[in-house]
Amino acid sequence: MEPVAPSKKADRQPTSREQQRLETRRSLAEHAIRLFSEQGYYETTVEEIAAAAGVSARTFFLHFPTKAAAAFPDHDARVQDFITRLHAGAPHTNPLSQLRSALDTGFEGESPSRLVRYRLLSEVPELRDEDARTDRDYEKAIAAYLILHWGESIETEVRANAIANAVIGVVRATLSAGGAYGIDPRAATAEILWRMFGSPFEDPLHSV
Amino acid sequence: MEPVAPSKKADRQPTSREQQRLETRRSLAEHAIRLFSEQGYYETTVEEIAAAAGVSARTFFLHFPTKAAAAFPDHDARVQDFITRLHAGAPHTNPLSQLRSALDTGFEGESPSRLVRYRLLSEVPELRDEDARTDRDYEKAIAAYLILHWGESIETEVRANAIANAVIGVVRATLSAGGAYGIDPRAATAEILWRMFGSPFEDPLHSV
DNA sequence: CCATGTAGGTACAGTGAGTGAAGTTAATAC
DNA sequence: GTATTAACTTCACTCACTGTACCTACATGG
Question: How close is the nearest chain B Cα to the Cα of A50, in Å?
């Protein structure tokens, strides 16, 4: 339909090979999540997932480093998005309020299928571990961003890491504890962070 | 030497069987940590650890659920200690300042061998995961303690969990980031928590 | 449009963590 | 002194994950 002049660099149409690879990956992740929730994580073997996706078991590991990783197929993309949002603010924005708005928009991207994953997540240690690694990537991103704005020094490094861990801790808690009661994580996170950090998280409150 | 009248309940001398079991466990953990740091985590097999301790590989798993768990043999006892300290305060102590003092004393129990573990810990994902599970136990303990003092409600539950996660996040960050620079974790944690939570963590500062 | 490199996949064989079951021995209980 | 049972062993098994060699179809440039 749309013949493409192949260009040396990026931004051309994906080639047939690339599409096929992505499709295989997507299919593996989809069947993995489906099987995990239908029959349980431990009751599902990698062989089974691969078979459902119509590839060999070996191929599974060409796409995901571990069985658990297939439950978080868009992890890297989400972290990248977050980092982009984090650095997207006007030059002299207060970094904490920029952080807050990056977190806020982050909640909006939650797909409904995430809910399925949350259930699995709370039950299966391997998946909790995988999710915790996710958190560490966010923490690193936040710490790096804060250090960038506050300047490099031992003191800021420790402070930045502490704040990053604390913030992600609050987000995780409101998502899991709050999620169980149908509380809006955006409002809860904002309120708690506001009490902890004061003004930068204060206003506007974006409350529900 | 000391013949013991066996009593039905606790607090008698440990029997020979109990002693043997503890000794096997201790030996397994010791050799595990030694081998992990001498030749690397992935280069050490459970078989090897068991052989070094003079038992069969199967026995290893009668003492530890996973290979990684052997690197944290005193985990449960430490958490128990922490919980005890947490609830040891005078009846109407401010829960946050009680939390703070429980954390403070916690740092003192650090054995020198912990340092070896920290190095391993930062390098090996499996051990990081194991440590993160540790953190979750502390978080649960803190959240439960806060809820106990603040009363049960959805709001306090979310808040308590958020604060617990945040506090542990700060501790983890000061231990790992601060540890690299030889910063005293007690002082750094106290200072950061003080800025975050204000008065309850304020005074006395216990600075180095 | 053809030659050729290569990306995505397969087949096979292996390692090592972790589990279930049945058996051995020696401390303990009665 | 006999019966229990806790700690351990042996054996056989499953399954996650890896290394290697190979295959095949798409891609690319001459």
Answer: 25
